Amino acid sequence: MSLVKELGAGLSGLEQLRALIAAGRQPSIGQTLDFALVSIETGLAVFEGAPDQRVYNPIGSVHGGYAATLLDSACGCAVHSSLEAGYGYTTLELKVAYHKAMTAKTGTVRAEGRVLSIGRRVAFAEARLTDAAGRLLASATSTLLVIAPD
Asked: For the whole prediction, is pTM greater than 0.85?
């Protein structure tokens, strides 16, 4: 069973994600990469993390997958927050642009995801990853499949 369903079966996506935050729990990927969902509203999800050397690539900077994971999570949860009870989603496409390299010295980063549009079967979202000074580190657009209840 998924963590969200465990905490909120029968709730809307927004209610499920709020229950997750209230319980102080995070999905496994957030634990693995040390980032957390810190704010959720309908169509808006915010994650924060502080990359360190554990997420470095061989050339000595934060691996692009760290930014991509934060951006994918922000886009996905923004869509999830807009879904009625019983609905799910999955990412069909994620396009990431890297604007500035990150290192352990970057400090806390913030990924804000927003729904651009959502229909019965497909949703579109975008996200921005910034540092504490508001500098753009990476951005993404995402296409997501909306999954109706069984």
From this structure: yes
Q: What is the pLDDT of residues 6-57, one digit of tens each?
A: 666 789 999 999 999 999 998 889 999 999 999 999 999 999 999 999 999 9
Unique residue bearing structure tokens 């990431």 = 96
Helices (H), the chain: 3-8, 13-22, 28-33, 64-80
Q: In what order do the strands lie in the sheet with 44-49?
A: 35-41, 44-49, 109-118, 122-131, 136-147, 88-98
**CATH for 76:** 3.10.129.10
Q: Report which of 40, 39, 127 is spatially closest to residue 91, judged by C-alpha positions.
A: 127
HSE-CB for 47 with a 13 A CA cutoff: 33
Give, in degrees to the nearest 5, the angle at Cα 26 between 85 and 62: 125
Domain count, the chain: 1
